[in-house]
Specification:
This protein is of the alpha+beta class. The chain has 16 helices and 8 strands. It folds into 3 domains: 79 residues, no CATH class; 169 residues, no CATH class; 130 residues, no CATH class.
Amino acid sequence: MRLWHKHDVRQNAQRLIHFLLSEHSGTGWSIDWKNVAAWGELAYSAQPVLSRGIVLRVLTRMVEEKVDSVEAFERIYEDIQQSKASIPNERWRYLLPLEIRVPKSDLPVRFRIFEHDFYLIAASSFKRYLKPQNLRALPLVLSRRCSFQKEISRYTFFTALVDAPDWRAGWQRVAPAFDAFRGMLNLSLSFYQLRLTFNTPRPWGIRHPCWGMMISRHTEEPFFFIGERGESSKIIELSEEVVKALKRNLYLLKNRPPKGSTLELIADSLRLYSQAMDTSLPHWRLLGFWQLAESITVAEDVGGDTAKVAHRLSWLGSKIGLEASGYRYTLLALGQKRNQIVHRGIGDVDEEDINILKLACEAGIHWLFSVVKDLPTVQHIRQFYRFKDMGKKQREVIGETLRFINSPTP
């Protein structure tokens, strides 16, 4: 299996491999800039791109076998991939704390997302899954990394069972569903609502957990860390009505969305929505919501042109009852501000402006849900925007031409 194809790229990979092997101290590699840069170059120059973890595993095997060539790297890589495929699955339980409270009478709450069952459970149920030594160690472990989330009894836990060869493979299956769930939860709680922190840096929504647990029959250290440090937040109470609405809204995502479908676009938009709500600083939040706007409007078709994104998103302003031009000029100005943040590093962003962008994105997600049957694929969404970008006269000409093409020829 060849990972580097062009002659000059293979030569470059050979130099990097030789350098990294020469840096091995007998017990491992020191973490310095030269080594970190070399790991990255070796990983990103390969096709397919490699993870740094697999690069480290291959190089360690090369040290053991005393080999030093691109061909040896590729052979060992292929051997590792084949051995991974033959590893039997193990059952993993994932447990993630959420800063929400659900009425005890409703727990556990079951959700079906991407063809898999997920549950919300109480903290008392969470504790039953832990071995006594893990339960005792939990406060100390969390105090080092996530002290603001160490009061277990405050939280409701999101949990799932997955069959996978290792915890990372299982997490790759859980994470997309968790992102969709959290995105829908944040959307359900924040839909068309103003969010003001008066420039206090804190998230707008239900924050991504700082930590989680993965438990299997053989796991000794079940803790893993997946989020940012922060401060303790207010627990959000979920009423029975909100839980019912959440289950109803997630019904569309009970099956795994087909590749390239509008449902897949919706799931990705929910992920981006939560990421934007997670962000504490206003300028990062603007970038997060703008990234969501680009996703909703399929902006890769127009090279991410900010004016096009603003135009494609702004037409929904009248649909949700806004007056006159709605938020068109605001979105155009925010597009320019987005460019200034990216290219010049400005940080002067008003929360009111971000709320308008949030509103526009929420209208866009709501629209995607409403057209999922009529425009079932991203290709349909792409063509919709392409024709909407045109003038009315252009669309009429295209319509006449299509009718001619589809009519029986005389």
